[in-house]
Amino acid sequence: MARGVLVEEVKPGSPGQLSGILAGDRLIEVNGRNVDDHLDIRFHAATPGDVRLSLQRTGESLELTLPEQRYPLRGITFEEIKTKVCGSACIFCFIDQLPDGVRSSLKVKDEDYRLSFLHGNYMTLNTLKDRDIERIFEQRLSPLYVSIHSVDPEVRAKILGRPPRRELIPTIETLLGGGIELYGQIVLCPKVNDGAILDETIEVLGGYHPGMKAIAVVPLGLSAHRDENPLLSPVTKEVAGRVLDQIHEHQERLLKEKGTRFVWPGDEFFLKAERPLPASDYYEAFDQYEDGIGMIRSFTNEFEKALTAVSHRTPVTKKLAIVTGTLFAKTLEGMVGQLAERSGMELRVIPVPNDFLGRAINVAGLLCGQDIARVIAAEAPGWDVAIPAEVVSRANGLLLDDWSPDRVRSEGSANELFVVNGPGDLVRLLWEGRCEGAGTATYPHV
Question: What is 249-268 written as a DSSP string?
């Protein structure tokens, strides 16, 4: 493997270009320190004083000294981080349940503290080495996101599919002792880590607040392509209700003891249990929004706000079919029904069963092009159609089965197809005839 970090692009006129760096250069050292990724570069280049660079250019070594400024490498795009992959074999791993034909990037099992810091990706801590912890402390890579599942070592080993390389609680204590904040996630597997095991996990982790900021509890997903595993069973309506009640008891206690609910169930539990969603203040700072916690409440709030802003105007779109997953359809139908009644527009919500991954996968963010096209062709041919932005890859503009939105439109016999980014974008489409489209999806679970 080549040393250093490749410079992929240098923006004309930027401080990076003025420094003499060229696309194709490989940055080896910054201020005498080896660099392995762009995080290293940014950290070491931010030290006071001139910045000394060691480069390789077309096989030759080159030394540059940049005068002190806030960040002399602005305008330079470095290669992406080479992802550290997961060494676990989690019994619920959704990547192992994906069929052939999905984007190759979806099958990457990342286990990388850098991606945890940058993007909120969860890691088990199993690949973490002592030198990684030293770097985390030195560069203040905080917060980090930890897949916990259970604090019971035997249960956690069963869930991870093999004995962990690092003990969970001592590693958590080490990170917290170094001033690193943590968020935790529990993937709830009925009859494996629920009940008394879940109680123990929440109680133990609550003792580490405020360093341990919050815990998300989310249901496992079971696709139709998984290998049979007698340990796994779906989260049913009964299970979802029981988990909600259990978490609520802990929330009441922790709110009194810690001033925060600390642990939150994913939105799916409320939908599966057919219970109303809590009000906004239940979610406090919405810290675990990306885990699907509070997303639907945020969606509802944004919908109402956007609708209020245009309620005095005349819509330009008269007929629109709105695609979503089967889990969120009933909730969305209620909002869209109000919208149609107030505006006189002809609107329909079209729930799309997920035949590509299996009917048990019912969130919009995992819908594929062929399923959407099939349902549109059967239920709304000739209509204008809105699909949620989260089904389209930000990287290549394709759905997870590599269908393009235009192919979905064509195969589904839609008149026009719009990629809509959230409720504000939907209202904008109806009242202004335009929307932002893919690339900034904000509701991947609904």
Answer: HHHHHHHHHHSS--EEE-HH
DSSP states along 177-204? HTT--EEEEEEE-TTTSSHHHHHHHHHH
81, 38 in Cβ contact below 8 A? Answer: yes
144-190 pLDDT, tens digit per residue, is: 999 999 999 999 999 999 888 889 999 999 999 999 999 999 999 99
Strand order in the sheet with 346-352: 346-352, 319-325, 384-388, 417-420
What's the rounded Cα separation, in Å, for the pair 310 and 241?
38
- Contact indicator for 116, 122 with CB cutoff of 8 Å: yes
207-227 burial: b if 16+ Cβ within 10 Å, else e: eebebbbbbbbbbbbbbeebe
List Cα–Cα distances, 256 to 134, 260, 261, 300, in angstroms: 36, 8, 9, 29
- Contacts of residue 8, defined as CB under 8 A and 6 or more positions apart, other chains included, come to 23, 77, 78, 79
What's the DSSP call for residue 323? E
Q: Which of 155, 158, 152 is nearest to 89 (CA)?
A: 158
How many CB atoms are located within 10 Å of the residue 174 CB?
A: 18
Q: What spatial distance separates the first Cα and last Cα of the chain, rounded to whole Å? A: 41
Q: Are 130 and 99 in contact (CB under 8 A)?
A: no
Predicted TM-score (pTM) above 0.85 = yes
Element (H, E) at 248: helix 237-258
